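Field: COMPLEX_INPUT
Field: COMPONENT_COUNT = two
Field: RESIDUE_TOTAL = 700
Field: MODE = joint
Values follow.
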Amino acid sequence: MKIKFSRSVRSIQADNLAPVLVGIAFFTLLMVGWTLWLFLAQIPTYATSTAAVYKQEGYIIAQFPAANLDSTRRGQPARFQLATIKSETKTIPLVVSDVDPANGQVRLILQVDIDDIDDFIGLQGGTMGEVKVTVKQDSPILFVLRAAGLWPDA
Amino acid sequence: MRGCRLLRLTPGTNFWSQIKQAGLDKFLAYSTVYQAISYGALLVCVELVKRSTATGEVAWSTLTAALLTLLAAIPFYSLATWLGFVFNYGTSVLVKQRLFYGVLNLDIDELQLQGIGQFLSWLIESETRQEVGLTRAVLVTLAAIPLIVINLALFIGGDILIGSLMLFWLGVTTWLGYRLCQRCITLNAHHTEMITALLERIRGHQTRLVQENKWHEADDREVADYLTLAQDYDRQNLIVWVLIPYGWIILMLLGISSDFVIQPGMSEGGGFELRFLAFVFGSFQFQFLALVIPDIARAYAAWRLIDPIQRAAIQRSTQARAGSASNEEIEVPQDDLLLPQNVPLIEGRGLNFRYRIGGGRPILTGANLSIYRGDRLLLEGPSGGGKSTLASLLIGLQTPESGLLLLRGLDRPTINEQVWRQRVVAAPQFHENHVLNASFAFNLLMGRRWPAWSTDLVEAEEICRELGLGPLLERMPLGIHQLVGDQGWRLSHGERSRVYIARALLQKADLVILDESFASLDPENMQVALECVLRRAPTLLVIAHP
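Field: COMPLEX_OUTPUT
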């Protein structure tokens, strides 16, 4: 259909690209955000104990499967959760102090003074629980590449 | 040609078929999918936030992922809303076409029974329905979906208490919405009555200004009644606005608190996230519903009011389909000799009829009649007795509500509406008939064919002379070709009556119905006209006052 020139000019003048530009900017920022997250974020991998017991001296002895012990090193951060408390958020910060591969045991030291934690007043020697050691932290892109078989397992 | 393709459906056909043909169903489907994605993203976001603090310390990578997921939900939600509105505008166009189609197909006789106020109300309410109804209906659907999903999740997750509370509150919301709809319908009906009455008074110069400050108690009563109804509606509206959102919050708090009392520590279990979602989403969605429900009520009331227009559109489409189907299959006998003497020309059995809009008073109840070829019938009765209505049924202007009406043994859908009207013609009452601003010949032969053949003109002139219009033809400078009507030669009352009779006779129909056509003629002219009619009409039905 033939359109008059003046009408075309008016259409061009009336055209507004602002919403499109805002949309593109938003999408660009979102994509940049996801890309940065993909490469820079650190996703922790945990080794979970089969059994753990709190000792009166302020440390914890935890049993780990042999496969998990290979990646457990001295100085790695960990968390101790009491078996008597349901909440996942109530945990005690620890650090790995010694690894005994022969017995499949790991010794962990409390990172905080036990008296400072109100929620764990009932904590005493022999209390059972679960320990999660952060054995490594990788970026999400490595998880993706490993899942696709493009990156060897560490 | 092996077939044909329908380019556009009739506006009165099934609405969903029209939506599909216009391609609007895709917009609705995409809108729903994007809406589901955005709600899914929100659920993922909540789960990520929960996991980010699962170990007792904040996992910033997981929290960042939650934030990015939340941001990603925004464009999907915007897209879903935009597509929803595109669907609404598209369907609004279809609704408008349907209403126009319905208006054009409303029965003239029924329309004459309505006041101008009724039409004004229809106009206003159809606008309301277009602007408000569909948009809000989609929004309500979008608001109700997450509520239903969360409700199902609560039941599946074993949280029977909160699930039941939500189900109960959804029921309460529906019930309150229904009550509001009922009040809106009552208010609308009263409003329509007021507009109708006011406009009729204006037409009759009965405004207060003209009445010189004479106060009418009836006016006060109407306004007072309307005020009472409006207050009742507002009260119900307020209940909806306040009770639905805040009631849910109170109910939820009560549910959670009772749970603490009965079973302390349960809030730390796995159902906490679902309860959090039920609380947050529920509060938001119930508030949204409370805002939208009054508009839905208005749209529903408008829908009810303009229902006659829609029914007219649907009925017209159905008739059109029936007519088009019959065109190809039935061959109507053209020769009168084919009709055996013992078969009536027109036959009615148990005819019932009432005007749909005019209060529903039955005009004809169980009417039976048989008219044979060559009959000369006089139908007498009091004013408003249904004589003209029977005539409009016989000529096919109206359709009987029930009963059987046959022409030459065939019903109207079979014989085709156009053919029926060629076979049975009428000269309607004086106030329903018109002399058009055209030549005298056109006014006579417009029912037969135009441009007319020379034989038609000769026959028209013959009939005019037989009806006593010879002196008129001689007086007019151009004779039968003289321009008549408002801008031409002015015809007297009696002359016009005889023009209408001539117009009916010239159509060469099987049955001629003359509705009070002789009322305005003097005895001498009536005798002349009657003789002509008796001579010319194959079968005749004259309607007259006793």
